Amino acid sequence: MNLRSFGALAALALALVACDDTNLTWPDAGSYESTAPAPLACIPNLDGAIEAYEMAPTLNQLASYRVSPQLPVDSQEGRLVDLVGTVDDAGRRLWDWSAPDSSDRVADLEAEPLADRWYASEFPGGEFVLATDAGGRLEAVYSHDESGLMLYGLASSEPDPPEGRTLLVYEDPVVFIPFPLSLGQSWTQTGVIRNGTLQGLTPWSEDDVYESSVDAAGELRLPDFTFTQALRLYTKVTVKPKAGARDGYTQHQYSFLFECFGEVARAVSPLVYDAEQDPGKDFSVAHEVRRLGWF
């Protein structure tokens, strides 16, 4: 059928309807009513504090990040990163991380139920897991309640990966993030591991010392989002082996947190094995940079 004949049929149909409606019965139709959208679970109130409900995990919901390319674990190279930002005349701090980088990779990360994991029985009290590395080879076990986000330890995502199994369980969970979280807070926790397994090496023992502080707040600009009131969480992790053939190390990390979104950006320093070479919290080369993205 060509367009001309289609047009004729349409005109004919209209003519037939218009000719005679004496035998047609039209039921009364009610007005169309739309269904109200479901309310959002969390809406930022920009009060300068992150409450427990504003950082509650949503299981099996993907979050996509722009992540700098993977580097060898011991690499001292990385991407230049501005952790200081700028401060305007009114004292407002701004971090501009909005420049795109063609070398970025996309990592889809999600919190998943602990019960589904091969190591679930080793972490009583744990609730969910989240990958610690963008490739998803190592996972951390957490729980969440009104008092804080608790960290129970780490495990390899697979029971027997090529590099060997990892199962590191803290004797007592550490408070990874206390609630409510606000500028000026600081805390130190030590995770004690005894008789663990690290990449197939067992028994493995270590102390992980976490020194954390919320040391700044301000606007964070990313390629796809701008967060007007982000909190900057600084964490220094010092790993002190008690047995085994590996040296200890220190690593510095900055996480930018925003109400209802959680961690929206991250910068992690290279591993530091020599205290004299430690750049401290003012590192300018990041082993990994993550930025929440829209894909």
Helix/strand layout:
Elements: H1 3-19, E1 49-50, E2 63-67, E3 79-80, E4 86-87, E5 93-96, E6 105-109, E7 112-113, E8 128-131, E9 138-144, E10 148-156, E11 167-178, E12 181-182, E13 186-198, E14 201-221, E15 226-243, E16 249-258, E17 262-268, E18 285-286, E19 288-292
Parallel strand pairs: 5-14
Antiparallel strand pairs: 1-12, 2-6, 2-19, 3-18, 4-5, 7-8, 8-9, 9-10, 10-11, 11-13, 13-14, 14-15, 15-16, 16-17, 17-19
Structural write-up:
The structure is a single chain. With 295 residues, the protein is mostly beta strands. The protein has one domain (59-292). Helices cover 6% and strands 45% of the residues. The protein is built from 1 helix and 19 strands. The protein has one helix at residues 3-19; strands spanning 49-50, 63-67, 79-80, 86-87, 93-96, 105-109, 112-113, 128-131, 138-144, 148-156, 167-178, 181-182, 186-198, 201-221, 226-243, 249-258, 262-268, 285-286, 288-292. The protein has a 15-stranded mixed sheet that branches. A hairpin with a 2-residue loop joins strand 13 and strand 14. The longest helix has 17 residues, at 3-19. The chain is globular and about 85 Å long.
